[in-house]
Amino acid sequence: MSDYAVKMNLEKYTEVCFYIENPKVMAVAEKMEELCQDAYMNGYNWEAFFNCYLAQNAPELLEDMHTDPEAGMYVAYYDLTPENEAKADKFNELIHSWWRSRNCSMILCGNTPGTLNGINAG
After folding, report:
1. What are phi and psi of 13, to 5 degrees?
2. DSSP output for 47-98
3. CB neighbours of residue 51 within 10 Å
4. Per residue in 2-19, pLDDT tens?
5. Strands, E assignment, the chain
6. pTM, whole model, 2 decimals?
7. Does the structure show a pLDDT above 70 at 20?
8. Which helix or strand (DSSP H or E) is residue 108 part of?
């Protein structure tokens, strides 16, 4: 289990918690802000970021998704059903695969895989 994204089931929901104050996440957010000062990556901007990526690459994950962006965390959650649990698993895996591949910056909308202007999740 990572310290920046966790999928968990609650009584009525399955959710993915993305901890934006994690040092790994903060490092990427700081690079993004260097490129564009409007890219202050609080929970609301991570929500926009993920919505853009998912709309282009995995729109099925947006179906039935609810979000709760905060200052230090972004939470995506679904009603707890087997189908929605699979969506949460897939979203959580997407987040982890970005960091494992060291290419999390590629999720900026409209860009191809690889690092973007020197942003690297390492």
Report:
1. -135, 155
2. HHHHHHHHHHH-GGGGTT-EEEE-SSEEEEEEES-HHHHHHHHHHHHHHHHH
3. 15
4. 789 999 999 999 999 999
5. 5-9, 13-19, 66-69, 73-79
6. 0.80
7. yes
8. none
